[in-house]
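Example record for the data management plan.
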Amino acid sequence: MTWLIEEGIGETRALLVEGEQVLAARLLWPGELAAGTRASGRLIAKLKGTRRGVALLEGGIEALVDHLPQAVTEGQMLDLVITRAPLAERGRLKRAQARVAGADNGALPAPLAEGRIVRRLPIGLWEEVWHAASSARLDFPNGEVLVSVTPAMTVIDIDGIGAPRDVALAAVPAIARALALFELAGNIGIDFPTLPAKADRRAVDDALEAALADWPHERTAMNGFGFVQIVSRLEGPSLLHRFAMSRTGMCARFALRIAERAEGHGPVLELRIHPALKAKLKPAWLDELARRTGRTVRVETDPGLALEAPSAQIVAA
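Corresponding structural encoding:
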């Protein structure tokens, strides 16, 4: 197993690959505070009766700081480690979370810090992950898992044909795969088919335990309504969170990737996209696309195209 890292325009993508199979995916946008990033910040508030406070980082970003040393005072500069990136949600922005560097904070390295940088990821692998995340679903035999992002939790629903016990058990591998492919974490609820028999519920619990054995988390047993709750360490936005909060941004970056991989002979690279994406294409990104391809870039809009279906071709003029 190895992480393959592709430094794209507007984003860095990483896939954990074993043979030709993708085991997990990660995504980072430039300028983001990934978990494990070192940062300096001034403590602007110390919450009474706790060891927590608020620090102002460079760029005006605020972070909640946990496990503050007793001697720290307001106004003091702190060397921090980010433990969770800021998260955009409908109508609000959750502050980043951090701890003082050097403390026993257990902060993990940034998710894309280690791995092998490649010019291009193997053909089709990122597209498979991207389109699955775009639709927020994964298939399994005779069914599918559907994933929804809400401010309170990520909810996984199971839809399938067959006896409820069989459907629930068949969904478990797809659930484990969705957690890794979509970079899911935090508070996660799984809504299995209702299983009245305790033996059936125990069988699904055992299957989940085996499937998630290498994934750090805490989990409840299935209740009588088929619901299981999982809690794992949340370090940043999942792929589904990014689609929920910035679908056009995700699609614009994907369009640039499609354009960069276009093949042919000619001086002009023509990129055709839905009109909603044009405003998301930063001039610096288009300049970088021209530099990487060695061609003049021409952007055409077509309202008949889906956001998720750009096209690119090399043309003579």
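Summary line stored alongside the record: The radius of gyration is 22 Å.
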